[in-house]
Design a protein that fits this description.
The protein folds into 2 domains: about 300 residues, FAD/NAD(P)-binding domain, CATH 3.50.50; about 180 residues, Flavocytochrome C3, Chain A, domain 1, CATH 3.90.700.10. By secondary structure, the protein is of the alpha+beta class. Strand 12 and strand 13 form a beta hairpin. It is globular and about 75 Å long. Helix 5 crosses helix 17. The chain contains 17 helices and 26 strands. The strands form 8 sheets. Strands 5, 6, 10, 11, 12, 13, 25 and 26 form an 8-stranded mixed sheet that branches. It is about 30% helix and about 20% strand.
């Protein structure tokens, strides 16, 4: 069910929906000094003082304010710890808030309401179906922690007021285990943020950590890019995400040369936690695996309707009632308005006659031989899908779709024409459609002529269509720091780096998370578990 560098499911819905209109930018140089130095004061109580009168800024310092960091901060604060969360971006939520928000777990109240009998043991076994040929590289000890703790993390989100759809099925799971957050994933990170603030958790944004501080044989704090030192009485937790957008020199330590240049989904996923851990003798496990790459249509220029909905549990419950009780035909126009935001052109488009071209109108690769590897090297990193009337006439009903639409249905040409007019260009001639899309008419004419002459394609009848631009991206780099069952970062020899914990993608520790909803579930679950262990002093 998994190939070495990406999923092969017929639908993809755990990663992108673009419910967040824009991610905070980060310079491509990654770890150099930020153009916006941390200027926001830490609000809340003053420093924590130990019995030895040494001053601390918090009991626990969390690096990263995505789902992992938020769940860790909330859990630790509920256990009486003073928590400081450092986020290098301008906003809270991380990659979790950018996801489609699917949480895969077992034994939930929503499963019980549907009469679904499930258990963590069954989930553990079914994960073999997703690991596939990577089973020997899976961290089964962490898998056990994951499946046992995930139901508790899910119930914790329910207690916050998070609302989910009925359980959704996926091949590989013996029962329906996927739970979609409503109205969007950002709603849940906002609920967690509010809870954290009520508990006294302090947040500092645009606060990029440059290095860890060690004292007395343990990690004791962090140093920010502006030189500020912050000290933790108990621990530092790395919840800084994956390294899919790390500097090229870092990515090349783990990824093949053809994958390393492809950018990550989240511009802030620069592998800070992995870098810190490696600097103290830790190791990155499964660093050569990524989720993707895939070519996706670019995000819409304006926020989607769904992304602008308030993060209200009441509204979420109203949406849930509508989804549960209204016919799909009634809901489809509303739901399709956001799922066409950033979808993948279906591979079958190219089997049926479409071609990929670049801004010069050139056909740059065989569409059925990993075109995503070549897409990043095209002018501006942009590529386009081109086809004629013969194919366009077919793209209105299953099985001839443009993209798969998560949970809902399939997205057809008329869906894109209605909801993503910015992506669809047409013209009576090849020259006209090229001009409409901003492509070289001469180059496109040559590409079509060459493809037709070779007998590969038959693009001849106008009007002609161009969909795009689209870009290649990596959703997750799977390599995370090696951790033990208590989420403590370990060295290559298995010894513990005292005072340092990692969770989420930064602390994935060799765990294979193939299958939709497992990355989001691991983010929340591992953050919760790490905080529980830190609070317990283990």
């Amino acid at each position: 069910m998994w190939k070495r560098f990406g999923p092969v499911f017929p639908f993809t819905f755990s990663i992108i929906t673009s419910t967040i209109p824009n991610a905070s930018p980060l310079p491509s140089s990654g770890w150099r000094r930020c153009s916006h130095e941390p200027t926001h004061p830490v609000s809340g109580a003053g420093p924590v003082t130990s019995d030895l009168s040494r001053q601390y800024d918090a009991d626990l310092i969390v690096v990263g304010a995505g789902g992992t960091g938020l769940m860790a901060a909330m859990t630790a604060a509920e256990r009486g710890l003073k928590v400081l969360v450092l986020e290098k971006g301008a906003s809270i939520g991380g990659t979790t808030a950018m996801s489609f928000g699917v949480f895969a777990t077992s034994g939930t109240p929503l499963q019980a309401a549907e009469g679904i009998a499930d258990s963590s043991d069954a989930h553990f076994e079914d994960l073999n179906n997703f690991a596939g040929t990577l089973i020997d590289r899976d961290n089964l000890a962490l898998r056990r922690v994951f499946v046992d703790k995930a139901p508790h993390a899910f119930r914790k989100l329910l207690d916050l007021g998070a609302v989910f759809t009925k359980p959704i099925s996926e091949p590989g799971h013996r029962v329906a285990r996927l739970h979609k957050m409503l109205p969007h994933s950002k709603a849940v990170t906002e609920l967690a943020t509010r809870r954290c603030r009520k508990l006294g958790v302090r947040f500092r944004v645009e606060a990029e950590v440059s290095e860890l501080i060690e004292a007395d044989g343990r990690v004791s704090g962090v140093r920010l890019r502006n030189g500020t030192s912050l000290h933790a009485r108990r621990a530092v937790l790395l919840a800084s995400g994956d390294f899919s957008n790390a500097p090229l020199t870092f990515k090349k330590q783990f990824l093949p040369d053809d994958l390393a240049p492809i950018p990550g989904l989240n511009k802030l996923s620069t592998g800070d936690g992995q870098r810190f851990g490696l600097g103290l003798g830790g190791e990155v496990r499964n660093g050569d695996l990524v989720w993707g790459p895939e070519i996706r249509f670019v995000e819409r220029p304006r926020p989607t309707l769904l992304s602008m909905l308030p993060s209200s549990p009441l509204l979420a419950r109203v949406i849930k009632l509508a989804i549960d009780h209204l016919p799909l035909a009634v809901l489809r126009p509303f739901l399709m308005s956001f799922v066409t935001s950033s979808m993948r052109p279906a591979p079958q488009l190219f089997e049926k006659g479409a071609i990929f071209v670049n801004r010069k109108g050139e056909r740059f690769a065989n569409e059925q031989d990993r075109p995503e590897i070549h897409a990043e090297r095209q002018p501006g990193g942009e590529v386009f899908v081109m086809f004629d009337k013969d194919l366009a006439d077919k793209l209105g009903a299953w099985p001839n779709y443009v993209s798969t639409a998560p949970v809902i249905d399939y997205a057809y040409l008329h869906d894109y024409q209605r909801h993503r007019k910015d992506l669809v260009k047409s013209g009576p001639t090849i020259e006209a459609v090229a001009k409409a899309a901003g492509l070289s008419a001469e180059g496109l004419s040559r590409a079509v002529e060459k493809a037709n002459a070779a007998g590969e394609k038959h693009i001849s009848r106008g009007p002609f269509y161009i969909l795009g631009p689209a870009r290649a991206c990596i959703f997750f780099a799977e390599g995370g720091l090696s951790v033990n069952g208590r989420m403590q970062v370990t060295r290559k020899d298995g010894t513990i780096i005292e005072g340092l914990y990692a969770a989420g993608s930064a602390g994935q520790g060799g765990l294979i998370l193939n299958g939709h909803g497992h990355h989001v579930a691991w983010a929340y679950t591992s953050g919760m578990h790490a905080a529980e262990c830190i609070a317990a002093g283990t």
